[in-house]
Specification:
Layout: H1 3-14, H2 20-32, H3 34-51, H4 62-71, E1 77-82, E2 88-93, H5 95-144, H6 172-180, E3 216-219, H7 231-234, E4 241-245, E5 250-251, E6 254-255, E7 273-277, E8 282-285, E9 320-321
Antiparallel strand pairs: 1-2, 3-4, 3-9, 4-7, 5-6, 7-8
Helix pairs in contact: 1-3, 2-3, 3-5, 4-5
């Protein structure tokens, strides 16, 4: 395929417009074709920049306010018009003409700005899905060198929720191993819809420096790595969620029970989250009960109250944890 054809294919992939066979072909090429992967990274940066351009919906009464301001004027306005020869001519507009121009401008703004904002949201959502897929690829790369085990956090305590005065461990430190091993970059863990806080890894770092540096949640892995070859998981890999947009249930070191049953990540204003399954595919979900047999991906099965030391109830129980602070 030509370079222009590759560019169009990657643009469709980034925006989530590929059918599944085409998307699978792109994923294979990203793993084997360095030039193709470099083009993908460049396009990702372009769309990331576009995604940062935020625009607010115009006020509902914008048209009425502008027209009222024009109609309240008691004089015609003067506009300088450039002539073909380079000179300037003063053109006086009537209130009627100004009203028509203002109405046209307001209608255009009222139509285009909401559409542009929606386009930006969809772009950021697609870029986020790319991040989630890239983390999945990095997890599998790591597992290839670890006898099928995904990264985990060895810890002297089972406490994963930061409580004042108590020792606690960081589940996100497991994901930081992907950065230390050069399987993923820090930017991969920053959701484009949130923005995140950039940082440069140093040799003495063992975890993300702050919750703002990682806008995603990972399957509980303190002292117990997820293994992709584990018997019970092999048959449900396409249902087992292991990574997603940040949990809304445990934020700021606090459990929020009022959000538990119908929780949706707060990363995206669209009301949903990108989720990664054990088999490597990524899906956009508007519910939290999307794990094995309808498992709530934010909670331990059968547990409604949390001390910060809970563990998954079984190998197929998804329990996604955030950065501890």
């Amino acid at each position: 395929m030509s370079k222009s054809g590759d560019e169009q294919l990657l643009i469709d992939f980034i925006l989530g417009r590929c059918d599944e066979p085409s998307a699978e072909d792109v994923r294979r090429r990203l793993e084997s074709d360095g030039e193709f992967a470099s083009l993908h990274e460049g396009l990702n940066r372009v769309f990331a920049a576009l995604g940062l351009c935020r625009s607010a919906d115009p006020p509902a009464d914008l048209c009425e306010r502008v027209l009222a301001r024009v109609n309240s004027s008691d004089r015609a306005e003067v506009l300088k018009v450039v002539q073909p020869g380079g000179g300037m001519q003063l053109r006086r507009f009537s209130i009627r003409e100004l009203s028509a121009l203002a109405a046209a401008a307001v209608i255009v703004v009222g139509i285009l700005l909401p559409s542009l904002r929606q386009a930006h949201r969809l772009t950021r959502r697609s870029l986020c899905a790319n991040n989630v897929w890239a983390v999945g690829a990095a997890l599998n790369h790591y597992a290839n060198g670890s006898e099928g085990a995904f990264p985990s956090s060895p810890a002297a305590t089972d406490a994963w929720l930061h409580q004042p005065g108590d020792k606690y461990a960081s589940n996100s430190a497991a994901l930081f191993l992907l950065i230390r091993g050069r399987c993923a970059s820090p930017e991969t863990f920053q959701c484009p819809s949130v923005g995140g806080r950039a940082f440069t890894p140093s040799d003495d770092m063992t975890d993300f420096p702050s919750p703002q540096s990682i806008n995603y949640s990972y399957q509980h892995s303190l002292n117990a790595p997820v293994r992709r070859d584990l018997g019970p998981l092999a048959t449900v890999a396409e249902q087992m969620v292991i990574f997603a947009d940040a949990t809304p249930v445990f934020t700021g070191g606090t459990f929020h029970p009022e959000r538990a049953e119908h929780a949706i990540s707060e990363n995206h204003p669209d009301g949903g989250q990108n989720v990664l399954y054990l088999d490597g595919h990524v899906n956009w979900a508007t519910d939290c009960r999307i794990g094995v047999n309808g498992d709530n991906i934010w909670l331990v099965e059968g547990v409604s109250d949390y001390t910060g030391k809970e563990k998954p109830a079984s190998p197929t129980d998804t329990f996604l944890l955030p950065h501890p602070e």
